[in-house]
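Support case: user asked for a sample of complex input and structure output to validate their parser. Sending the pair below.
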Amino acid sequence: MSTQETHDHGHGDGHAHEPQSFLSKYIFPLDHKMIAMQYLFTGMAMALIGGFTVYVFRMQLAFPGAHVPGFGMVSPDRYNMLVTSHGTIMIFWVAMPVLIAALGNYLIPLMIGADDMVFPRINRLSYQIFLLSALVLISSFFVTGGAFGGAWTAYPPLSARGDYNATGLGSSLWLVAVALEFVAFLLGGINFITTAMNARAPGMKLTDIPMVVWMIVLASIMFMASVGPLVAGAIMLLFDQQLGTAFFDPNRGGDPVLWQHLFWFFGHPEVYVVLLPAMGIVAEVITTFARKKLFAYKTVLYTAAATGIIGFFVWAHHQFIAGIDPRMASLFTITTLIISVPVAEMLFVYIATLYGGSIRLTTPMLWALAFIAEFLLGGVTGIFLGAAGSDIYFHDTYFVVAHFHYTFFPIAFIATFAAITYWFPKMFGRMMDERLGKIHFWITIIAFNFIFIPLFLTGAAGDHRRIYNYQHFPEQWTPTLQNLRILATYALLVMIAAQVIFFVNFFKSLKSGPKAEKNPWKANTLEWVAPSPPPHGNFEEMPTVYRGPYEYGHPDRELDYWPQNEPA
Amino acid sequence: MYERFFTAASTYARDIDYLILLILVCVGFGFIVAEIVFFGFIFKFRAQDGVKTQYVTGEEKSQKKWVSMPHYLVLVLDVLIVIGALKVWSDIKIEMPEPDAKIRVIGQQWAWSFVHEGADGKLDTADDIRTVEELHVEVNKTYHFLLEARDVLHSFSVPAFRLKQDAVPGRVITGWFKATETGTFDIQCAEICGVGHGIMAARIIIDSPEDYAAWVKKGGPTAFWAASNVKAPGAAKAAIDAPTPTLTANNAAPLPQ
């Protein structure tokens, strides 16, 4: 794109913001929307890498020892690298940047009626550090020994010594990448919280803030409160690896279980850090397409806050059998089951929101509804693992894998697709193709269930995780179980193939989709007041807020929606 | 694959199965009701011409009860599950019955080795029987196992017993089991422990008192792997191109007589 075109664009919208060069608009932007796009596209690119790794290792599980097209033979050390990279990338470099950073950056200023983030330069720095972290992680694939192969939880002593994990340099780069990435999101989190609290449009009370903004703010607070121990832990582990300290080395007075506490003190709240923004997206989409006021706004807010607080007291349920004092299991079983109450209540509120609505099954609505339907299964299967007694059997089996994919896939992909299809007209000023969108939706959802329901069964039958080949376990090496593994792999291939439809739809609509009006979905929140796409500076006239975000079907009005900025 | 739920070879295996069943009934009930209501609403309230949406704030008591009632139901079911889960947990992991015998279980990259009491009925004496990748126990006898790890974390898992416990280097973790039927079952490592994690298999051989006495008298391991058509874990290990120095070190570790 030439500089001239970007100038025209800037002038055409007649906004006071300075015209920008290509470099300052696309490479070093200060505009929150462009930073959001950088996060979004980086996240999508990382999802391709994460998707490739799962393709390779699921092929190995279905056809052990076979040549995997596009990769080759999967040796046990490669297998460990692939599962480690898959987990790390999908959680830290896909779910986090897309759900929190991309959507937070894009939506918060637009939805609260601000012209940008309060700290645009910190925002830019946040992305640059994030990009650096991604590059460090990718570079670890190419060093001697290869990428880290000690699982995404990186338990020492395995992760602490090159002669245990065979990937000495890879494991250090992995730690550096993770620590850098956390710095990036800390910077982003500061920005989100400050912006949402200080830069709201005149008239916007705390209870007028759209739910997705609240959720991202709560998630950022949780992230900032939980990440400290893990960053400290990561530095300690890095010292153990490179400087010969002994924080986690039992031979010299260290304690490997300490790392598990530091990791899961962050790791479990992290689940809710990504869950909450997904819940927020679903709230926006279902209210818009059911034309319904959100059922009990404050209840949703309180349950989200309760989830956030209780989420800090459940971490040791990952460690029931890790050698912690068995009496601690009582406490953590109770807290873990208590957290099912606010999360279940949030889902009940969403289901109640549908009552009496006028539901239009557009593509974003299908994704949002699928989130509720699938996440419910992810939630209830967690009870088997949170209950200490049954966790003895299920711990570290494929039951766990299936359970957290039933939570993480809805969060990181289903909710993200809901968000992309819902806000695409705003982001790019064009509509997406509904037909392609629905084909993509149905294939993805059906394939998803065919991947993970078989894995619940293999897990219940005793398949442990991170095993590259079950031939050595006579009880697991049975035709029935192997057929289930093959079924899951075939379903995965179908699901990966279906993503081509998404990319076709995305780029085709980006180029030649029908032009979107300002408010194509007839929604209430402030981002729909700005032009599509919004120029640098967002609004033609800064909005004033008169009411809450979910005034659909108000009895005093002819129209079934009531934008937040429309004077009474 | 459902044989897993029929093979219960330890005293507490069935307790865990019944707990799983209890949870399945509780959450299954909630799950099915929630999904039925959810899909029912989607069907009933689909957009229809001339039908205006209802304006429900959800802030009034009469409306809130529709989410607070299921919320209390969840709480009641949670209490039920907590009681069951902690009862089972406490029986398996906290309350240790008096042992009839002790065994030492050692995990290392990438093999399980076991130390059995010899004819003198004591551990750590000269006539201990040491084996690699096969554990012999006597049916209907309470065992305490002393679990150690030489290098990294491992996890001692016997699915037929519903038993799993991580082994932590630097600690000796004690647990117990009592086998209820004779037979041969898998032992797996359930915690990723490096390149050879997937081949860290072993077998537990539960003998009748007579067979066990004969085995002890013989004072050595049986030839389970030779008799089976499954490749022995040790044999598979040779296929890995000695990726780490520890592999060599392990090969030098004490092997059975």
